[in-house]
Amino acid sequence: MELLRLYDFLPCGNGYKIRLLLTQLGMPFERVELNILKGETRTPEFLSKNPNGKVPVLEIEPGKYLAESNAILVYLSEYTEFLPYDRFLRAQVLQWLCFEQYSHEPFIATSRFWISILGKTEEYSAAIKQKHEVGYAAFSLMEKHLSSHTFFVGERYTIADIALFASTHIADEGGFNLTQFPAIQAWIETVKSQPRYISITQA
């Protein structure tokens, strides 16, 4: 089997999802760092791999690429304990993956990008305020669910947890305060206690 190659930007939550799952699956991979701040995902070479010019991208075999972090999660978790076999539970995982990309990540991760990666809190202050309003709404929904569940789907750790964890556990870097969400905080610690856990700063 070819060695998987992950094109990634280390601070990126979407790339972290893939690193975390690959590590927890025990699957060896090669990581290629691309600095998005220097336009390294906008080169003709990279655009030939992903015309959308974004990381992460997983090279499954030479010339065969898969983009979009949650699509990569589904691909890698197929036939593993991280993706349920039950049809309804699988659909619930996909439901949370859609929620993460549409109602969660654009607000949580973007705030972190502006504040902690670009260092432009003042410049983006009005936009950050708007992102926070919607971001806190997403956290409220998650809190309500987690107040009666250990994990997001089927009372077991799945890629739904990995997807939502990636940006949530570092939300403070985007100016969010999670102290009002005790169930989320407990869930974060539960995720961190899973076998083969790695932090977002581990390449």
List keywords for this structure.
globular; 9% strand; Glutaredoxin; 203 residues; 2 domains; Glutathione S-transferase Yfyf (Class Pi), Chain A, domain 2
Task: Write up what this structure looks like.
Helix 1 (13-25) links the parallel strand 1 and strand 2. The chain has two domains: 4-77, Glutaredoxin (3-Layer(aba) Sandwich); 87-192, Glutathione S-transferase Yfyf (Class Pi), Chain A, domain 2 (Up-down Bundle). It has a four-stranded mixed β-sheet, with helices on one face. It has seven helices and four strands, in the order E-H-E-H-E-E-H-H-H-H-H. Helix content is 49%, strand content 9%. Helix 1 packs parallel to helix 3 (69-77) and helix 1 (13-25) crosses helix 6 (159-168). It is globular and about 45 Å long. The mean pLDDT is 97. It has 203 residues and is of the alpha+beta class.
CATH topology of the largest domain: Glutathione S-transferase Yfyf (Class Pi), Chain A, domain 2
Count the E strands: 4
Instruction: Give the integer mean of the pLDDT values.
Output: 97
Characterize the overall form: globular
Name the strands of the widest sheet in spatial order: 2-1-3-4
Strand content: 5-15%
Structural class call reads: alpha+beta
**Name of the CATH architecture of the largest domain:** Up-down Bundle
Q: Summarize this, please?
A:
Helix content is 49%, strand content 9%. It has helices spanning 13-25, 44-47, 69-77, 87-117, 125-146, 159-168, 182-192; strands at residues 4-8, 29-33, 57-61, 64-67.
Q: How are the SSEs ordered, and which strands pair?
A:
Blueprint: E1 4-8, H1 13-25, E2 29-33, H2 44-47, E3 57-61, E4 64-67, H3 69-77, H4 87-117, H5 125-146, H6 159-168, H7 182-192
Parallel strand pairs: 1-2
Antiparallel strand pairs: 1-3, 3-4
Helix pairs in contact: 1-3, 1-6, 4-5, 4-6, 5-7
